[in-house]
Amino acid sequence: MASKDSKKATKALGRAKAEAQEAAAPRTPLGGPVWKILSVGTTLLATKVASDAAQKGWKLATGRNVPVKGDYERERTRDVVLFTALSSMAVATARVAVERGAASYYRRSTGHLPKALEDDKVSPEDVRAHRKLERRKARAAYRLQKAINRAGTR
Description:
The protein is an all-alpha fold. It has 2 domains: 30-119, no CATH class; 120-154. The chain has 4 helices and no strands. The chain is flat.
């Protein structure tokens, strides 16, 4: 019993420390607009660089120009689909990497994440509702399995 109490106290202490650090990090009214500018700017730059790299990589790998959507006489559908898929993956990867880097830079600079990226706190009511839903799902799965087993034995 004592170990449970000590674990609870340790968790409560950890939460209190995290909340104290969060409260100590000053928030300025300019934080939101600064994050938006940083996020949008880096995303645009990453998108441009990734799409240019995909185009140059296509030209280097195939020796042909980038397939143009809508040029049905000259380009094969396979090439258009393949290039679109590859360039989309490159752009998405670059955007995720740059956004994470921007968030890391923002955190190092200000001591906290931007408000747009902070996790919402889960209320106790939400936790209880989730547990209730999980119990109901488990009960329904049990009843379904029981019905399947009964039908199989007939």
